Amino acid sequence: MRASQALDPGRRSSIGLLKYLQLSYAQGFVQLAQDAVPLLRCLIINASGGPDRLEPRKYDDGEAPAETVEVRDDLPRVRFWIRRSTDLFNWVWMASTIPGIVGFLRYGSAVHDQKLADKLFNLR
Which comes out higher in pLDDT, residue 92 or 52? Predict the structure, then answer.
């Protein structure tokens, strides 16, 4: 879409296409960050599991191997606070879409008004 806008002068002045491109650029980064929160949550929660989550390796004959198996401490309070903080991050990312929507709605008139363009720049 960006290439077609660069080739066609009529599309360069299209306010609708310009608004769409600006919104997709701005909100695309927010969406990527919002997708990273559950991945981070899963990584940290699984790393703080206790010894009941680790099973020693067994040989085919049912005996445990001679080497020692690492046992981690169970951290239930840490897991609780990690879950709450990632829930908070999800709400923050959702709240950050509101200025993006407001900027999208006002972007068309900001193309011709410098004061409004400055205001939207600060809103971003």
Answer: 92
Q: Are the C-beta atoms of 93 and 86 separated by less than 8 Å?
A: no
pTM higher than the cut 0.85:
no
Q: Name 48's Cβ contacts closer than 8 Å, sequence gap at least 6.
A: 72, 74, 75, 78, 79, 82
pLDDT digit string (tens) for 84-93? 998 998 888 8
pLDDT band at 57 (very low <50, low <70, confident <90, very high): low
Question: How many angstroms separate the Cα of 12 from the Cα of each of 4, 108, 113?
Answer: 9, 13, 18
Per-residue buried b or exposed e for 13-49, using 16+ beta carbons within 10 Å of the residue's own CB = eeeebbbeebbeebbeebeeebeebeeebeeebeebe
Burial class, 68, CB count within 10 angstroms (exposed 0-12 / middle 13-18 / buried 19+)? exposed
Q: Which of 34, 23, 9, 30 is nearest to 103 (CA)?
A: 23
**Which pLDDT value is given to residue 59?**
60
